Amino acid sequence: MALGPQLKRLGKHSAIYGLGGLVSRILAVLLLPLYTRYLSPSDYGKVETLIALTTVIGIALRMGIHSAFFRFYFDSPEPEARRLVLRTSFWFTMAMATAGLVGGLLLAAPIADALFGSPDDSELVMAAFVGLWAGMNYEQLTSLFRVEERSVAFVSASLVNIFLTVGATLLLVVALDKGPIGVIVGNFTGTLLVYAVLIGYRREQLGLQFDRSLLREMNRFGIPLVPTALFLWVTNFSDRLFLVRLADTTEVGLYSVGVRIASAMVLLLTAFRLAWPAFAYSIDDDREARRTYAFVLTYVVLVTTWVATGLALLSPWIVDWIAAPAFAESSRVVGPLAFSTVAFAGYIVVAIGVGRAKRTQFNWVVTGAAAAVNIALNLLLIPPYGMMGAAIATIAAYATMFVGMVWWSQRIYAVPYQWRRVVTAAATGIALVAIGKLAGGGLALALPLALVYPLALFPLGFYLPAERKAIGGRLHLAR
What we know:
Layout: H1 3-38, H2 41-62, H3 65-73, H4 79-106, H5 108-116, H6 122-147, H7 151-175, H8 179-201, H9 212-222, H10 225-246, H11 249-282, H12 286-322, H13 334-356, H14 363-385, H15 387-412, H16 419-439, H17 443-451, H18 453-456, H19 465-478
Helix pairs in contact: 1-7, 1-11, 1-12, 2-4, 2-6, 2-8, 2-10, 2-11, 3-4, 3-9, 4-6, 5-6, 6-7, 6-8, 7-8, 10-11, 10-14, 10-15, 11-12, 11-13, 12-13, 12-16, 12-17, 13-15, 14-15, 16-17
């Protein structure tokens, strides 16, 4: 298949996934005024800390089965073989999620005491583990829509989940004044309800079938990814735990609002990540795959850098619009966090070659190096600089991870990436942000600088002749 149709297919599914993600992120941002008015920064910090904890526990419990499911599903086109992969993955996930739930309920008081210095928040911990059980099982089951490339069905389930979640959260937090536990229970209510419906919908595919030999093969692929995912968690979430210990929960709350605003980047990244594995593994011809992967990296860096540039420049006004005045300082960390996601997006693209070659055994070295950078810089920078130190640690860690994965993946599955264009796209965005911050011209300067990004790439020779021709043609039609 030609490159154009391949990229259009990826773009189509990413756009559909992005629709669900867009609604989710918009609602998440719109809920920020609710959180910042009905929760104290300390309460909000506790919620974010428990989300971070259950995320890392979920990584360990999954044992890489989620990634293995995507890779092994495409090993055979036969329906029976694919059904066996589904059933084995489903029942393994169910067993591990249930074990995690039981453990969390039994150890709720000690966990609360370790995290917050008192067992009084044990109910909050128990609610978080119910959310973990629901999330693990829901994610595994909805992955089937992704490998089937049924992005519309996936988004439909996601939207129902989102609206049920928002309704439950509003009821619990606003009407019933349940505080932080209302946020956590509201967050998993929609997931549980939609999961129950999907169980009924998929009942014929979810028979009592489990293949131990297949599971062993999937574990050989997936288990090496567990330390990789844990190190990724360290880079993604440990900053909030370090802030709890080295600063306070108020600083965590401020930082978390900055993270939530920077999550507009996560919207793009989530849409792409949902479409990317099934798309990338479905390309049979290696030569075609390598060429496609090269262009995908260039375009992903282009789009994510543009969004990061806009968020970094406009963050003071965005925070002022959506959050209470007590959270104004959150805007300082939005820029570094947004650009760290650009590096993470690049990592996701280049890591696919290692998965394609089924050589995942040493991915943990790359993510481990990034986690070490993150930990060291958090310890060094948070005491004097607070949340800004955590943001700097995050961007440094993601940059390390991207460079390390480029080095490793090119040894395993070499791809002719367009490095001059990639560097030009990223550097241009950083330069525009620097100009805006140093000039201090207010919104009247920040907004034009954010919008001018794609035009600034023309004199730098970023666009290929075919791309310039296509852009010119579209501009002509728009007149």
